[in-house]
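[User] At your convenience, examine this fold.
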Amino acid sequence: MRLTGVAAAALAALALGSCSSMPDWVPTNMSSLGSEQDPYLWLEEIESERALTWVREQNARSLAQLEGDPRYAQLHADALAIANNRDRLPTGEVREGYYYNFWQDETHVRGIWRRSPLAAYAQNAPRWETLLDLDALARTENANWVWKGATCLSGSSRCMISLSDGGKDATTEREFDIAHRAFVESGFVVPEAKSSVAWLDENTLLVGTDWGAGTTTESGYAFVLKRWTRGTPLASAVEIIRGQNTDVGVFAGALEDVDGARMPVAFESDTFFESSFWRLDGASPQRISLPPKSTIQGLYKGHLIATLEQYWMPQGAASGVGSAIPSGSLIAIALDSATGPAPAVAVLHTPSARQSVEAVAITRDAILVAGYENVRGRLLRFSYDGRAWVEGQIALPATGSISFAGASAGEQTAFAIYEDFITPDTLYALDDRATRARAIRALPALFDAQNFVAEQFEATSRDGTRVPYFVVRRRDTQLNGQNPTLLWAYGGFQNSYPPVYSPYVGKLWLERGGVYVLANIRGGGEFGPAWHQAGLRTNRQRIYDDFYAVEQDLVAHDITSPRRLGISGRSNGGLLVGAMLNQHPEMVRAAIVGSPLLDMLRYDRLLAGASWVDEYGSPSNGRERRFLRRISPYQNLRARADFPTPFVYASTKDDRVHPGHARKYVARMQELGMPVLYYENIDGGHSATANQDEVARQRALEYIYLMQRLMD
């Protein structure tokens, strides 16, 4: 469940039919908790001593069972070796002749920010120089700093560094000078808030932050952007653009063309999936002619590049478009027409029903598009010669996932990574003006995959929709229904989950005899915006029907059985698992519920929850509230003999999904006399981990739980 300045403008609800009918599991006599009489509201007091005492008691009980298992020590050692493995691809960003990377290992637990000359990196011989040592900074300042990124000004050595206390989404922004390897004395500093910053020039910032009472949205983000000049107090910054407190937020950004021309912009996220885009390089903000359900990807040779999450019919004869442009398309708008009534639009690519555009990167010579065809990666290339657009494809393996590992509008070379379930990451340089892929480095295997196979299957959902899923198993696995199987899915926010290499899954689960399943259910982006929008608001039951169909298919094919099946999901995926436990507890014996949303009648009042109303629906809307009450995991808990013992985890420092969701769910289960394991990391933010050691511990806890439930 992510929200970033540029990407916040995405995806809106497209009507795809009426709400799915309610399944038989829903109790007709609701004895569930309403928020108005919730006895566990005190657990929403994140740092209260009463709540933290309860958390410590839960942790002690759960860790005694999990870490007390004789097998845990080896699991943890294996996980720690993976977490601190130095033989990883150092990926990051390309900028002005350098490759920038943030690196963590057992020596640099919090991490170091470093760079190498780009030419050396492209030859797999990087010459790293450390710019900022976060471990040293944390010791010096006695702070629990977690790296959140850097926003740098082209043609300058100045950057704004984002630092988080313990992994929270809220950050402190501090000016850093790369040339001197130090924070700038009396430089720009934006205090802790859910801020966004962009450089206008070396002495001026565009800032969105908490300006005081009444300047943040219901979701906790800024809705006022101001221009801040060096040497003046932050409070004296001059307002440039203002949204509304009902927006998700207004975010600062700056786009850069291949010739170095820069264009400051504001992304006004009216909802999580609808935005207004503003050009800020004139005397006053100019609205960019894009539909609300679209995403700006960057600038290329005088064109604004964007992807659409809705059908769009540009106005005016100058548009050059004779019919509505399909949702999911990649388009280019001539920049000099982008704020006018008749934008000149070129359609570069329209995916088919089983294709999607996943990511876009821009180099000096080309627009690169990483996409999927039936959840398998492909890499496209588009260029403009001044008269026409030319499309091509860059050859890469076609059975896994392709992602970008750095590109810049000012550089010719970009980088991409290929991986699949059993093939470790291979880093490619996209050379010759990004026309061909050259393998730079392939990582060694971190688990023995030679005897494993990955296969794709399809289940049929309740409404007849074909739902793909992958099964990773040993070649000699007997289809006897007795295989310990972990089923993972997410199903929301148009997030796609293709085949990727996970050494944790391989080493901690597959090598120990487990089967791993990834389900590409609706709500994700594997087949473009329509696949996501099919499960929005009161259509969300379709997502759960998809997941249930995969569970049934696994059993029907004798891959596993309910006695040997476990399910897992985090964040929105935690909501998925919580809902499935209520709807079909008889299908599973283990469930990992990570950093979850579980109280769907109060989610919009907790932290960033109000920003997700377009995904889930509003508890303030009568029809949507009735639906949410019927699917909300917390409100629908009831004692059942076939309810498995779940492992629920969260983080005290999570300022995106409130830990109160998990806490109240666990307390309610205990009230009902139902066994449950709960672990809450005091640090970690929404990822539930703040450093590599915590990652290793969390993974070991998850897999020892699965072994106890599915293998014993």
Remarks:
- The chain has a mean pLDDT of 92.
- The longest helix spans residues 692-711.
- The chain has 13 helices and 37 strands.
- The domain at 453-711 is CATH 3.40.50.1820 (Rossmann fold).
